[in-house]
Predict the structure.
Amino acid sequence: MTRSYKILALKGDGIAHEIVPEAISVLKASEEVYGFDLEILGPYDLGAQFWVDHDREEVWDPAITEEMIFEADGIFKGPVGLPQYVGLMPRPYLPVNMRPDLDVYANIRPCRLRPGVKSVLVGREPGEIDYVILRENTEQMYVGIGGYLSRGGDTEMGVDTYVQTRRGCERVIRYGFELARSGDYKGRPGAPSDGKRRLTGAAKWGICRADDLFKETFERVAPEYPDVGTDLAWVDAWSYWALMRPDYYDIVVMPNQYGDILSDMSGAVQGSLGLAGALNAGEDHCYAEPTHGSAPDIAGRAIANPTSMILSVGMMLNWIGDKRGDAKLKAAWKGIDAAVDRVLGEGKVRTPDLGGSDGTSSFGRAVVEALRAEN
């Protein structure tokens, strides 16, 4: 019997309108190849441009109901936001409120140097860079607690409250240990340099008290995972070592804002943010989205690299496969991952961010063809 899953698809801003359709094409090909059924709802519009186009009253299509969001087996969305509207849109709005509302506390952002791609780190070869930044997703600087002090029409002070809890730290750290055990979302389990499964904790303890809690929690939980090596680094030092010895790292768990910043740096390490997929995951829900933003400078030119979006929806399938106990979905993720590697390795179709001249849809079609050819 063919199993069926409901997937909510959301577009977003800028290049989202170009890369989301390619992800849908890959999902449909996966259905055919691996023998499952996806009921794709949408894709629906949302984001900054939608807000402006609807008299600054609606942030997303009213057809998107709370039931659709909470009952979907998986959700994926393109990037949201445009620079001219930063700070103006009402809060809460997608995707910020989706993270705490769905309690998707783990933001999984792989960094892998793939075949046929050059890193900014000269001399590094595919397979030598293969780590995952695991970013706590609901706490730290993005909790939305803060405000302004204004007098006489002048804003004199801005305050944001940095919040971390024992529960928040512990569950994402445990998620990191489990990722190190499984090797999910990586080219192969373990660190490239020595093959060891390793969890690195990166924060700024000794300076920030909330990060003292993060470190204390890491050290308390670690003995429960004797099969996984551990490593601790100040987050600023880690940013140095990630460039100097990226092959040492396997899974790196960080508080929210640190992971947000350093996963963008990792986009350069793996050759392009256009290759940087990501998954927001919790116990009961997940939604996939690329690491990068809406790239308004190239939007509408059909040259955006859709790989990040394609890999993100593949990661979504893997999460659903674990949640629902469906090996076909996990196999589909591996197939999508391998198809991307095949297209990149052959080098026949390349978007401009990778030094080529092919368009978004050309790359998407190539991945679909590779996915079918693999099976």
